[in-house]
């Protein structure tokens, strides 16, 4: 289970003490390159039933609402889940290329022949 919204000063030991009441077995809090906690944790449970039960609720620690999410849920750096975001259901679709873009692409794609280059250079001089 992924847990987001963890206060920056909380350690994995402190969080584990609280999560053991819900039946958690382990707790891992990743850090960034500057050894700062990222505000999220990964927790394991003994069975899938424990996981499903834990995902139904939320954990409140001194006015912080910790949100449990399925492990593979993508979250942004501000600890908001994309599931609640207005962009969650937006699927990136390939936009049609405009006529101007098509012309530019053709110019780049098709190499200019040598005789065309010579005629252009002769017109310039």
TrEMBL record:
Write down what this protein is called: 8273_t:CDS:1
């Amino acid at each position: 289970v992924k847990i987001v919204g963890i206060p920056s000063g909380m350690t994995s030991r402190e969080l584990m003490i609280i999560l053991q009441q819900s039946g958690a077995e382990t707790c891992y809090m990743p850090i960034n390159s500057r050894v700062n906690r990222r505000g999220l944790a990964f927790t394991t449970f003994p069975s899938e039933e424990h996981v499903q039960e834990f995902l139904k609720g939320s954990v409140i620690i001194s006015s912080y609402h910790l949100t449990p999410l399925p492990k593979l849920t993508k979250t942004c750096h501000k600890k908001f889940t994309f599931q609640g975001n207005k962009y969650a259901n937006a699927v990136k679709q390939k936009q049609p290329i405009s006529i101007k873009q098509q012309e530019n692409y053709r110019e780049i794609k098709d190499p200019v022949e040598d005789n065309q280059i010579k005629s252009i250079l002769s017109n310039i001089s």
